[in-house]
Write a structure and sequence with these properties.
24 strands; 3% helix
Length: 272
């Protein structure tokens, strides 16, 4: 349900606390799916999870699980974590090291395994008590692309474009200058205000969009709705977003994309 509005600033139409849910025996924050907005309002974004754990907590735990039908993006906010995914030859598990600020983009396509032995290398190096924080998000694939070959792409911190917009440092995980592409036009920004302040950015009017607060506090949209962690801010129609009154250290994820307009069929770890 996307409206096309020319030359207008976006409002924040919903501010909602993330809820806590159990995942593999851990409590994580789940801002998306939201209890108050239908999928059509957030299409193509399916799920957002934030985790704050110690890698020692994964010791002896089998975290290997299957996925299909979407892009699975995992962004490391704090610490580092190693993991595995079955995109090697003949579906072999590939290991990857993800330092702080790295992004793993796993296109699950017709089927892939993910997250085998999270943090195994770090624990072997005696760094199991490292604090680790991450954001995981799922982005749908068009029905015509559900059966593509699975693939994985790692973007190291130095490969992520960074620009200064107003008072904000913006890391472009998906969007102009980033090699990571979704199945539909979109953007994913990590926005941080080291000293507080404000910024404005273009969000194409054909996109659905939202922000997820990680740290600090700020106001969103032309209507200046206040938000703080761990809140989700759903954006209304328009083509520009203004964030203001940001406290020093404020940080949030901004995600927006062109909807497919297809009904997503949710089946546990699969999206058909």
């Amino acid at each position: 349900m996307t409206q096309t509005v020319e030359g207008t600033a976006r409002d924040a139409v919903l501010v909602e606390d993330a809820h806590v849910r159990s995942m593999m025996g851990f409590e994580i924050l789940e801002p998306l799916p939201t209890r108050s907005a239908p999928y059509e309002r957030l299409d193509p974004f399916i799920l957002v999870h934030e985790s704050r754990l110690k890698l020692s907590e994964f010791e002896g735990l089998d975290t290997k699980h299957p996925h299909r039908g979407f892009d699975n993006l995992w962004y490391i906010l704090e610490g580092s974590a190693s993991t595995g995914h079955s995109t090697g030859p003949d579906g072999a598990i590939e290991r990857v090291r993800l330092p702080q600020g790295a992004l793993l983009a796993l296109r699950t396509g017709r089927g892939a395994w993910h997250a085998e032995s999270i943090g195994e290398e770090e624990r072997q190096e005696g760094r199991g008590d490292t604090d680790w924080r991450s954001v995981l998000f799922w982005v749908n694939l068009a029905r015509k692309d559900k059966q593509v070959e699975p693939s994985a792409q790692v973007l190291l911190p130095e490969q992520i474009p960074v620009r200064q917009d107003g008072d904000a440092a913006v890391r472009v995980l998906v969007g102009e200058g980033s090699p990571v592409q979704l199945g539909t036009p979109g953007l994913v920004y990590d926005v941080e205000f080291p000293n507080g302040g404000a910024f404005s950015t273009s969000v194409p009017n054909a996109f659905n969009g939202f922000a997820y607060m990680l740290d600090g506090a700020a106001t969103f949209g032309a209507n200046k709705r206040a938000a703080k962690p761990p809140q989700l801010v759903v954006l209304g129609p328009g083509e520009d977003l203004t964030v203001a009154d940001a406290a020093p250290g404020t940080r949030f994820m901004l995600m927006a994309g062109k909807p497919y307009g297809e009904t997503a069929v949710f089946n546990g770890p699969y999206v058909d």
